[in-house]
């Protein structure tokens, strides 16, 4: 961290919070919930339950599902709160993030650190006691990967930040699998691979839309430092590897025809979106004509449909 960033952060810690004198309990609660980035956590949890269904070959116990989901939310929420604390100087300079609770003063930096740390510790204890030690260890690893490896080390230093930093977002499938089986299998590793290779073509279109924001904040996201063509080519590569991982699961025998059909159809559809995006970059299109947000929203639809099929598959076997 350079001296300018350190000075800015010290000033932000010491500055009085620009909030109203009287705040309702509801507004305080909403601010702390916002620290956990619930919309991101929704996507992470969407991958956890289907993985548990596949690992169990049906319904795991409702108690195990609830314990795993709560523990996963605590872990992700704690990591996200600590991420907001560390990135508060960046968030203040970006239009997309300038309304986050620490920037607006709804939550102080000190309170955010305490909150994030408490959730992180609680998640490890919760999972260790109510699920198993393996899931707890994986959750701690996910927190450290996101807070230290991605936020503190990679994000401000390399354009490949989201590639390797995305490992943290892949951990819920391993946590879900280990919650049911007590360990990790090759099927779980391939599910991890799907999300790992999915993350760049999911996030880079968003970074393309907000390139000026990232430039202002000094964050070297790939669309900021590389040409659109180069980014599109890397998106195609990652998408191809993602689809390969999704199809490689089928011969392992844990899945049936529902997942197989979904993997082929959704993979082909999302691959088309990415290739069309690449073609448009070669034609020199920008903005809405390039359509980065179509790919971004398409990536969410792809992952959701694939994992819904994964959840349904154990119950529809011929």
What does this structure look like?
This is Protoheme IX farnesyltransferase. This protein is an all-alpha fold. It folds into two domains: 26-183, Tetracycline Repressor, domain 2 (Orthogonal Bundle), CATH 1.10.357; 185-318, Up-down Bundle (Four Helix Bundle (Hemerythrin (Met), subunit A)). The protein has helices at 3-14, 25-35, 38-56, 62-86, 88-93, 101-104, 109-130, 133-154, 161-165, 167-181, 186-209, 211-217, 222-225, 228-248, 257-282, 287-290, 292-312. The chain is globular, with a radius of gyration of 20 Å. 46% of the residues are buried.
Radius of gyration: 20 Å
- End-to-end separation: 57 Å
List unreliable stretches of 5+ residues. Answer: 1-20
- Helix tally equals 17
Question: Care to count the β-strands?
Answer: 0
N-to-C SSE string, H for helix and E for strand: HHHHHHHHHHHHHHHHH
Looking at this structure, what is the CATH superfamily of the largest domain?
Answer: UbiA prenyltransferase
Q: How is the CATH topology of the largest domain named?
A: Tetracycline Repressor, domain 2
How would you describe the oligomerization state of the chains in this entry? single chain
Mean pLDDT: 91
Query: Could you describe the largest sheet, including whether it forms a barrel?
Result: none
**SS content category:** mainly alpha
Quickly give the CATH architecture of the largest domain: Orthogonal Bundle
- Overall structural domain count: 2
CATH class of the largest domain: Mainly Alpha
Helix content: over 70%
Beta percentage is under 5%
Based on CA inertia axes, which overall geometry fits? Answer: globular
């Amino acid at each position: 961290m350079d001296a300018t960033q350190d000075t800015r952060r010290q000033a932000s810690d010491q500055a009085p919070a620009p909030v109203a004198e009287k705040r309702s309990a509801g507004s305080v609660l909403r601010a702390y919930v916002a620290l956990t980035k619930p919309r991101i956590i929704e996507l992470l949890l969407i991958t956890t339950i289907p993985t548990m269904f596949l690992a169990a070959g049906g319904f795991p116990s409702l108690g195990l599902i609830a314990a795993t989901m709560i523990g996963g939310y605590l872990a992700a929420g704690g990591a996200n709160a600590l991420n907001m604390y560390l990135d508060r100087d960046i968030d203040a300079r970006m239009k997309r993030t300038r309304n986050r609770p620490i920037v607006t003063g709804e939550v102080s930096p000190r309170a955010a650190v305490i909150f994030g740390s408490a959730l992180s510790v609680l998640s490890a204890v919760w999972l260790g006691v109510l699920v198993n030690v393996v899931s707890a260890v994986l959750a701690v690893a996910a927190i450290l990967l996101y807070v230290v490896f991605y936020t503190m080390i990679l994000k401000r230093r390399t354009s490949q930040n989201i590639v390797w930093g995305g490992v943290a977002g892949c951990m819920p499938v391993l946590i879900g699998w280990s919650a049911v089986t007590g360990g990790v299998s090759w099927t779980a590793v391939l599910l991890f691979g799907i999300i790992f290779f999915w993350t760049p073509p999911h996030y880079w279109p968003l970074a393309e839309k907000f390139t000026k924001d990232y430039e202002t904040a000094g964050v070297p996201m790939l669309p900021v430092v590389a040409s659109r063509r180069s980014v599109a080519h890397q998106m195609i590569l990652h998408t191809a590897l993602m689809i390969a991982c999704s199809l490689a699961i089928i011969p392992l025998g844990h899945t049936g025809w529902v997942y197989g059909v979904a993997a082929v159809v959704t993979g082909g559809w999302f691959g088309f979106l990415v290739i069309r995006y690449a073609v448009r970059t070669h034609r020199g299109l920008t903005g809405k004509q390039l359509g980065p947000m179509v790919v971004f929203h398409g990536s969410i639809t792809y992952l959701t449909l694939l994992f819904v099929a994964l959840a349904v598959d154990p119950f529809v076997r011929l």
